[in-house]
């Protein structure tokens, strides 16, 4: 059986024919065409050399993308020789690159009158006619090309395609039949005809067309699949299922068919049968993972519709993992799924599995480290950020993440070391520079270098005026030392104004007011903090107790100190407050 090969010439031609007007056969009068040709201009040696120089220079300018210069040079060529079809063709090409199809069309039409034997002129003009939606002229040129090159079946095929898009279905089918006579039965042609027959509503003939294809090669499972898909489109699900099962008889390991069958059952709301078939596809090792992932996402999107339980998706994931244990993409997909289910530990585990295969995937290291941070696992974050830096030593964000984990592990000197090492890789990124400065400020403060800390916080705010975390911490540290409480109040007030529902920021503002002895206003803001999720935070509960104590609401203060202990507060000062039922200042807070 001959195979239809689409040549480079066909690829050039087959751009995007959207509409086509019907055409009539016309015999080209070559003698008349010759009469219309202009006589060639005879150039003397000097003009010929000038022409050749300008033409070569124009081609060079076109190749390097200097379209305007190429146009100017080719125009000069045509001034020397107005009959140069080659100059017209090259000039048309440049106009096409600039989107000027009208100018290109006029040049090519003239070039073809001068040299009607050059197929390349016609090929380019066909494309331009298509762009200009002049499909009748495009068709006439395609016919000329086909008649001149009868051995080139691509022109015949293209005519069929064009006619199809022009909705001249019968004529298009006749072209496909002509091709089939020369090539034999071909699935590409048969499917094309089938689609046209369906568009005409000739369903029986469309079925017969695919049956001819099946009869030509009964051992090809894909043909049964085509028939099944067609029946499914025609809403004959019983016939579709029959042919899907025939695929499995010919090719029992065809996993994709199981997904097709599953889709069919699910469409009929036979969920149990659909899931049973789908599982056979998911566990199939030959079926590409991408197809499984796509079907999994369809099931997930219809979870409520089919009343599917989480346990089902977990079991499907296990099936896919058993079928693709060596595919890194499987672990990445599994990790994303687990993260969406808020199973952070399991998601991190699968991400680590992925990195065993693909250690040079920087975005995945970022994901892993951010998961460490979300899990508050600073030991892992510290270790894994160091490992990531070995692979990607020029990524400043990794140094920042390592600094955060070092800070949490109270390795303050390492904070300075790693931030200094990473700073040289920051390029024109004020926000990143500000982040580095902020964590240096934290480390300075933790090591008792308060003035250096305050200077660093000032740098952060200068670089990033919307860095509310830095402003909040700076205000809090100022209040703890009772240093410039007015500035602390101003900073904290700006933070709360921008984040009115953030319990942590509200707590800081209330605490600054507490230090300024404005206890009633402090109480208001602390109550707001507690009502925005802070009622389970030991620090906030203790602070509220402190405020109540200063307002001489002693018993309520003691109750809140006790609540702070129940919420996990275990400082010696807090225990002392409860035991002695009085307020003690915590200078180490």
Main sheet makeup: none
- Which oligomerization state do the chains in this entry correspond to? single chain
Average of per-residue pLDDT values: 89
Share of residues in strands: under 5%
Per the CATH scheme, the topology name of the domain at 466-580 is Serine Threonine Protein Phosphatase 5, Tetratricopeptide repeat
Radius of gyration: 38 Å
Helix content: over 70%
Summed up, the helix count is 34
Q: Which consecutive residue ranges, at least 5 long each, have pLDDT under 50?
A: 1-38
Which structural category fits the helices and strands? mainly alpha
Number of strands: 0
Supply the CATH architecture of the domain at 466-580: Alpha Horseshoe
Shape: flat
CATH superfamily of the domain at 466-580: Tetratricopeptide repeat domain
Distance between the termini: 85 Å
How would you describe this structure to a colleague?
The chain has 589 residues and is mostly helical. Among the domains are: 114 residues, Alpha Horseshoe (Serine Threonine Protein Phosphatase 5, Tetratricopeptide repeat); 115 residues, Serine Threonine Protein Phosphatase 5, Tetratricopeptide repeat, CATH 1.25.40.10. The longest helix has 19 residues. The N terminus is likely disordered.
């Amino acid at each position: 059986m001959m195979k239809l090969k689409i040549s480079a010439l066909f690829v050039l031609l087959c751009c995007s024919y959207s509409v086509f007007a019907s055409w009539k056969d016309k015999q080209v009068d070559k003698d008349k065409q010759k009469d219309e040709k202009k006589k060639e201009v005879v150039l003397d040696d000097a003009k010929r050399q000038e022409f050749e120089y300008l033409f070569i220079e124009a081609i060079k300018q076109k190749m390097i993308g200097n379209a305007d210069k190429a146009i100017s040079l080719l125009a000069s060529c045509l001034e020397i020789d107005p009959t140069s079809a080659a100059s017209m063709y090259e000039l048309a090409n440049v106009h096409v690159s600039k989107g000027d199809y009208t100018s290109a069309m006029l040049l090519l039409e003239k070039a073809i009158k001068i040299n009607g034997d050059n197929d390349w002129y016609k090929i380019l003009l066909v494309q331009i006619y298509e762009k200009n939606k002049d499909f009748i002229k495009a068709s006439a040129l395609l016919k000329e090309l086909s008649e001149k090159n009868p051995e080139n079946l691509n022109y015949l095929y293209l005519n069929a395609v064009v006619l199809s898009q022009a909705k001249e279905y019968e004529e298009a089918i006749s072209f496909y039949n002509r091709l089939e006579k020369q090539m034999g039965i071909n699935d590409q042609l048969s499917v094309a005809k089938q689609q046209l027959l369906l568009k005409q509503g000739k369903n029986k003939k469309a079925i017969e067309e695919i049956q001819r294809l099946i009869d030509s090669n009964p051992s090809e499972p894909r043909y049964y699949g085509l028939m099944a898909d067609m029946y499914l489109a025609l809403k004959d699900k019983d016939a579709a299922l029959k042919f899907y099962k025939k695929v499995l008889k010919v090719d029992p390991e065809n996993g994709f068919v199981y997904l097709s069958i599953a889709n069919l059952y699910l469409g009929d709301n036979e969920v149990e049968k659909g899931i049973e078939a789908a599982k056979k596809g998911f566990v199939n090792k030959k079926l590409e993972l991408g197809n499984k992932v796509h079907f999994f996402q369809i099931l997930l999107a219809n979870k409520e519709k089919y009343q599917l339980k989480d346990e089902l998706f977990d079991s499907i994931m296990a099936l896919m993992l058993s079928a693709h244990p060596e595919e890194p993409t499987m672990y990445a997909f599994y990790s994303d799924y687990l993260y969406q289910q808020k199973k952070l530990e399991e998601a991190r585990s699968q991400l680590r599995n992925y990195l065993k295969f693909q250690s040079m995937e920087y975005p995945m290291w970022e994901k892993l480290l951010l998961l460490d941070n979300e899990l508050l696992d600073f030991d892992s974050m510290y270790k894994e950020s160091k490992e990531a830096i070995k692979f990607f030593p020029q990524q400043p964000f990794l140094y920042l993440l390592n600094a955060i984990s070092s800070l949490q592990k109270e390795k303050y000197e390492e904070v300075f070391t790693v931030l200094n090492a990473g700073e040289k890789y920051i390029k024109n990124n004020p926000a990143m520079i500000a982040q580095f400065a902020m964590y240096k400020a934290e480390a300075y403060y933790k090591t008792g270098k308060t003035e250096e800390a305050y200077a660093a916080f000032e740098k952060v705010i200068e670089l990033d005026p919307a860095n509310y975390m830095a402003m909040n911490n700076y205000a809090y540290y100022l209040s703890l030392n009772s240093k410039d409480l007015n500035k602390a109040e101003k900073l904290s007030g700006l933070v709360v104004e921008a984040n009115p529902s953030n319990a942590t920021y509200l707590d800081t503002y209330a605490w600054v007011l507490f230090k300024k002895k404005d206890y009633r206003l402090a109480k208001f803001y602390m109550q707001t903090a507690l009502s925005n999720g802070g009622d389970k935070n030991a620090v906030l509960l203790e602070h509220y107790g402190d405020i109540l104590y200063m307002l001489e609401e002693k018993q309520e203060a003691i109750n809140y100190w006790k609540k702070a202990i129940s919420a996990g507060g275990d400082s010696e000062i807090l225990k002392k407050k409860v035991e002695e039922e009085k307020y003690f200042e915590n200078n180490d807070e």
